[in-house]
């Protein structure tokens, strides 16, 4: 059937180029292409045939129809690759083949692209037969969402296809079982296999996979071309002894019924001598305690490993780190998903982490440390009513200039699943982890939205940072940090004045530059809770963040520790007077005065700012201006 020439709407014509011929900044996204192509086809089929010549002329003037063939080909390939997410059981599956009917030029490019038709379309039987026929004897890309309408075609393709290059399936667990046998013994030409199984939505139903009908070990020649294997909520037996050439193995959400023993798990990993990237996300062997690891279990060597990502509790992560001999150049990514039983597990975990990081730092010393805090929602709903949806996380990233690959050499996230409105566990875990890391050569510390750490905790954090020269602060103001610097400088000055022996050295003596980005300079800090070392969200300090920072720099200047530069960029609620005070204690000051706070708007009764839901006359808050009290003592 001849292709109809149809006029293109502006929304579709803007893909790839704008009206001036320049590259468009709008990204190519499947939903937008899907809507535009559907509208175009609907419009085109209603167009009388005698208008074909006119519409063909209009299309020739439209930028989308005259895109370079290379751009059109890239659009087609992206649609074919990502169409796996656009199929469902509801009958609204969309075929990537539809966009080849947009106009004659697009149709021509599609028919002249043999690589495109290798993406067999399983959205509908007619598209399946069409793409299957045009693929001919080429290596296929089997990318699909498993549904009741295509499971038969998928099973036949996996069993009978001459060659299959890539497999990427998304399937509910109820429909994946007929395909597991073919996936366990895949086509010898497969290079990449991704199976994403969605758990059952029925409450209290345990997902169980039946064992394979025949053994998976030694059931065929090695799969020499299979390099990439990614399993989500899938049975562990899909990793067979034939997968000896894997370079990437990623395992997510392994069901508890599928978790192997530690011995078998390590035995399978030992075969992957070419492995460069390993991910274990809540997919560890049968849980055992630190002290119960078999002493006779030798460590598995993975000599080519470049990245290892582990997500689970501290016991599971610690066990794997103990059993694997990780090259010191490998990037270590850890996500702690729970802080339950923290006091009994944190010590062993940090010992294992310290052992690995010490070996790593000899190869690539750490020189940049980035600490990031994140709250997923408001901590309180009304004044001090805890929000049941509240979540928070802390991320620790350590970088090294000597690393051959980009990214952090250590990337550790504390992200507990369960609701916990307190900061106790977070600060305890952060303190222990930072103590375990070798930070003596770190010269830059970047803080992003990190406000929960108290002054006493910051004091212990800063002690090993003897080489710190640059402090970069963004987002929420870390009041505990500036108080640690101020109290340390006052304590150091008092001992020096009285000529007593120095029992506490000055913190970060090499500090030269401080950068503030998007910080509320008037924000107040938390007071330490009674009988605890963590924050009290009822006891607040009315000392303003920038005032405390300037006071700490003033005291440090007395010991010839003058800051070289202070940069205040895109910050809010700071007084011009405070800036003038800063000029006296730093050599160079760079300040953005666009957000300066007028003197007449300054409220001496409530000098510091807090989240809006806390500012109420009925809240039982104990405000205390610590900086004012210290100033009065000095006078």
Beta-strand content: 15-25%
Separation of the first and last Cα atoms: 94 Å
> What are the segments in which pLDDT stays under 50 over at least 5 consecutive residues?
1-26, 44-48, 498-503
General form: globular
Work out the helicity level: 25-40%
Name the quaternary structure.
single chain
Q: Please give the count of helices.
A: 17
Q: How many DSSP-defined strands?
A: 26
SS content category: alpha/beta
Mean pLDDT: 81
Radius of gyration from CA coordinates: 31 Å
Please outline the major beta sheet.
17 strands, mixed
Notes on the structure:
- There is one protein chain.
- The protein is α/β, with parallel strands linked by helices.
- 31% of the residues lie in helices and 20% in strands.
- The strands form five sheets. The chain has a 17-stranded mixed β-sheet, sandwiched between helices. Strands 20-21-26 form a three-stranded mixed β-sheet, with no helix packed on it.
- A hairpin with a 6-residue loop joins strand 20 and strand 21.
- It starts with 9 loop residues before the first helix and ends with a helix.
- InterPro entries: LRR_dom_sf.
- This is F-box domain-containing protein.
Fill in the keyword field for this structure.
F-box domain-containing protein; alpha/beta; 635 residues; disordered N terminus; 17-stranded mixed β-sheet; 26 strands; 31% helix; three-stranded mixed β-sheet; single chain; 17 helices
């Amino acid at each position: 059937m001849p292709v109809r020439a149809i006029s293109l709407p502006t929304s579709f014509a803007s893909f790839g180029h704008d009206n001036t011929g320049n590259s468009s900044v709008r990204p190519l996204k499947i939903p937008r292409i899907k809507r535009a192509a559907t509208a175009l086809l609907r419009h085109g089929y209603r167009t009388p045939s005698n208008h074909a010549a006119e519409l063909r002329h209009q299309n020739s003037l439209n930028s989308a129809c005259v895109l370079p063939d290379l751009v059109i080909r890239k659009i087609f390939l992206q649609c074919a690759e990502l169409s796996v997410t656009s199929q469902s059981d509801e009958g609204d599956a969309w075929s990537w083949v539809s966009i080849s009917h947009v106009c004659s030029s697009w149709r021509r490019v599609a028919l002249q692209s043999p690589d495109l038709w290798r993406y067999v379309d399983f959205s509908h039987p007619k598209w399946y037969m069409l793409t299957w026929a045009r693929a001919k004897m080429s290596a296929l890309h089997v990318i699909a969402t498993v549904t009741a309408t295509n499971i038969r075609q998928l099973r036949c393709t996996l069993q009978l296809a001459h060659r299959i290059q890539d497999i990427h399936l998304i399937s509910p667990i109820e429909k994946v079982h007929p395909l597991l046998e073919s996936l366990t013994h895949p086509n010898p030409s497969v290079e990449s296999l991704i199976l994403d199984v969605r758990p059952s939505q029925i409450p209290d139903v345990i997902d169980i996979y039946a064992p394979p009908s025949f053994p998976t070990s030694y059931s065929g020649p090695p799969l020499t071309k299979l390099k990439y294997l990614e399993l989500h909520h899938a049975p562990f037996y899909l990793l067979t002894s034939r997968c000896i050439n894997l370079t990437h193995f990623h395992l997510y959400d392994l069901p508890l019924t599928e978790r192997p023993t530690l011995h078998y798990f390590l035995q399978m990993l030992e075969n992957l001598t070419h492995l460069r990237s390993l991910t274990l996300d809540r997919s560890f062997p049968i849980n055992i305690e630190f002290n119960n690891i078999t002493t006779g279990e030798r460590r598995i060597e993975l000599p080519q490993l470049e990245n290892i990502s582990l997500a689970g509790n501290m016991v599971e992560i610690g066990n794997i780190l103990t059993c694997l001999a990780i090259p010191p150049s490998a990037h270590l990514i850890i996500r702690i998903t729970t802080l339950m039983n923290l006091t009994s597990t944190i010590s062993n975990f940090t010992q294992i982490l310290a052992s690995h990081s010490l070996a790593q730092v000899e190869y690539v010393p750490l020189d940049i440390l980035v600490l990031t805090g994140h709250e997923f929602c408001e901590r309180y709903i009304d004044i001090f009513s805890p929000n049941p949806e509240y979540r928070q996380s802390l991320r620790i990233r350590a970088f090294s200039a000597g690393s051959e690959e980009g990214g952090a050499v250590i990337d550790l996230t504390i992200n507990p699943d369960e609701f916990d409105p307190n900061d106790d566990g977070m600060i305890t875990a952060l303190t222990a982890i930072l103590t375990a890391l070798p930070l003596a050569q770190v010269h830059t510390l970047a803080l992003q939205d990190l406000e929960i750490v108290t002054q006493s905790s910051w004091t212990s954090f800063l002690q090993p940072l003897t080489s710190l020269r640059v402090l970069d602060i963004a987002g929420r103001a870390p009041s505990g940090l500036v108080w640690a610097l101020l109290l340390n400088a006052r304590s150091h000055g008092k001992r020096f004045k009285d000529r007593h022996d120095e029992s506490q050295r000055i913190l970060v003596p090499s500090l030269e530059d401080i950068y503030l980005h998007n910080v509320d300079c008037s924000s107040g800090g938390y007071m330490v809770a009674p009988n605890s070392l963590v924050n009290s969200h009822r006891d607040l300090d009315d000392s303003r963040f920038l005032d405390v920072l300037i006071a700490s720099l003033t005291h440090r200047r007395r010991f010839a520790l003058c800051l070289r530069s202070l940069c205040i960029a895109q910050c809010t609620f700071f007084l011009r007077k405070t800036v003038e005070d800063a000029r006296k204690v730093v050599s160079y000051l760079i300040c953005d005065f666009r957000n300066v706070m007028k003197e007449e708007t300054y409220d001496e009764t409530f000098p510091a700012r807090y989240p809006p839901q806390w500012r109420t006359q009925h809240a039982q808050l104990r405000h205390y201006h610590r900086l004012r009290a210290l100033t009065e003592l000095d006078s």
